[in-house]
Amino acid sequence: xxxxxxxxxxxxxxxxxxxxxxxxxxxxxxxxxxxxxxxxxxxxxxxxxxxxxxxxxxxxxxxxxxxxxxxxxxxxxxxxxxxxxxxxxxxxxxxxxxxxxxxxxxxxxxxxxxxxxxxxxxxxxxxxxxxxxxxxxxxxxxxxxxxxxxxxxxxxxxxxxxxxxxxxxxxxxxxxxxxxxxxxxxxxxxxxxxxxxxxxxxxxxxxxxxxxxxxxxxxxxxxxxxxxxxxxxxxxxxxxxxxxxxxxxxxxxxxxxxxxxxxxxxxxxxxxxxxxxxxxxxxxxxxxxxxxxxxxxxxxxxxxxxxxxxxxxxxxxxxxxxxxxxxxxxxxxxxxxxxxxxxxxxxxxxxxxxxxxxxxxxxxxxxxxxxxxxxxxxxxxxxxxxxxxxxxxxxxxxxxxxxxxxxxxxxxxxxxxxxxxxxxxxxxxxxxxxxx
Length: 436
Fold this sequence. Notes:
two-stranded antiparallel ribbon, Growth Hormone, Chain: A, about 425 residues, mainly alpha, 2 strands
C-alpha cells in the first residue's frame, strides 16, 4: 500500500481499535474473576493475584516493545503481538486448574504492552502540533476495559455452561476469552492488510545505548510516577471496582460491572480532550488541575463509615465525649466521586504523554515505554496492596487512602518542579519579596 496523506489517520484508526480490543483482553479478569473465584473456590489472596498477574506481564515489556517499534515499525510489532495474544486467550477458556489459569493469565497479559507500540507508532506519523490530540485519541482505547464489564455478564449467561458443538465453543465465563481469541485473529489481519506497508522507523540505525540514553534523566522517572496515578491506578480500579461494589455495597455483579463503566468511560473517552487541553494550555497546567481535583475526591473516598467523636470533658463527667457528623458513603455518592476521579485520570493520561514528545521527540519509544512500564506496574502492585490493606485493617476505604497518598506526593513533586523552573527563569527576583 502506498503512503497517502490519510495514512496517519488510517494508522490512528487501526491502532486505536486494536488497542481497545487488546485492553479488553488484558483486563477481562476484572469481571471474569468473580465467577472464576466461585468455580475454583479461590481465597482472597488468590483472587487478588489472579487479577494482578495479567497486569504484570502487560507492564514489564513496555520498554522493550517501545524500542522494538522504533527499530522495526509499529505495523510489524503490533500485528505480531495481536496474533500471539490470541493463543493464551483461547487457552484461558480451556483452563481446568488455578495453576493453569495463572500461567495463561500471565501470557494473555502481553496484550497490555500494545500501548507502548501504539504510542511510538502514532508519534512517528503525526506532527508535533497534532501529537497531543492523536495520542489522546489512541489512548482512548483504554475504554476497552469497559467492554467486558458491559457484555461479559450477559455473555456469561447467554451461552449454556456445556457450550456448543460438543464443547468446542465453551459456555459460561469461558465463552468470553474464546470470543476474544477469534476477534484478535480478525484484528491482526485487518491491521496487517489495512495499514501502509511503508512504515516510519525513527530508531533505525541507532544503537541500543543511544536509544536508552534519555532514561538517565530524572524527568522521565517523574513522568512515570505521574502515570502511576493516572494510569496504574486506573488499571487497578478497573479490575477492583466490580469486587468493591459487590462486597461493600452488596450490589449484584451485573449492576456492579455497569457502575464500573461509569468510571472507565470518562477515564478513557476524555483522553482526547486531555490531549487537546495539553496542546492548547500545556501539560503542566493540566496536571495541576488533575492532581488537585483527584486529591479532593480521593480524600472523601478514603473516609471510613462512622462518626466524628469530640472529647468534651467537664467537672460532672471528665470522660464525656460527643459524637457528631455521622458519615456513611452510599453507593450513589461513591459512584459520583469515582466518576470525577475517572475524569481526572482520563485527562491526566493524555497530559503525561504530551510531555514525552515535547522533551524527547526522537525517543518516544524508549521514554514512552519506560513511563508506560512503571505506570502499568502500579496497576500490578496496587490490587494485591488493596487486598492486604483491607485484610489488615478491615476497612475497605484503605484502597482510596493508598491512592490519595500517591496522588498528593505527585502533586507536590510537580509543584516543587514548577517553583524551581520559575526561580531558574527569574534569578534576579529570588528572595525579592521576602526582603521587602
